[in-house]
TrEMBL record:
SUPFAM superfamilies: DsrEFH-like. It comes from Streptomyces hainanensis. This is Sulfur reduction protein DsrE. It holds the Pfam family DsrE. InterPro entries: DsrEFH-like, Sulphur_relay_DsrE/F-like.
Length: 120
């Protein structure tokens, strides 16, 4: 059975420590060979856009753009459908490799045996 970690991050620049923790855990898990699915919801939705991660700063934390690259090298990043719509974000706007999907896909990812989900 393959290990998989699903992380839903709701925080963005409004709660930088919580946001950074979610991205850090996802990147470390991906680097460790664990299949990772990071879901961007709420204010973290903005990080699906090119350049937005470069604007994020938190002392003593890895750059968000580096963490995103690490996550994408060993996992998937998904932007919540409703969160994208509320912010006027369209599929053509997001970073390469980021998909837009909704609750049905999230539930299908967290239900199989061996999957662990975290919400930040």
């Amino acid at each position: 059975m393959a290990e998989k970690l699903v992380i839903k991050v709701t925080a963005g620049a409004d709660a930088p420590e919580r946001c950074s923790q979610a991205f850090t855990v996802a990147a470390v898990a991906a680097a460790s060979g664990i299949e990772v699915s990071l879901w961007l919801t709420g204010e973290s939705a903005w990080f699906a856009l090119p350049g937005r991660a470069d604007e994020f700063e938190l002392p003593h934390a890895a750059p968000l753009s580096d963490l995103i690259a690490g996550i994408q090298s060993g996992g998937r990043i998904t932007l919540c459908t409703q969160c994208a719509a509320r912010r006027g974000i369209k599929e053509e706007d997001v970073l390469d490799g980021v998909r837009i999907a909704g609750a049905q896909v999230f539930v299908s990812e967290i239900m199989p045996d061996g999957v662990r989900a975290l919400v930040y």
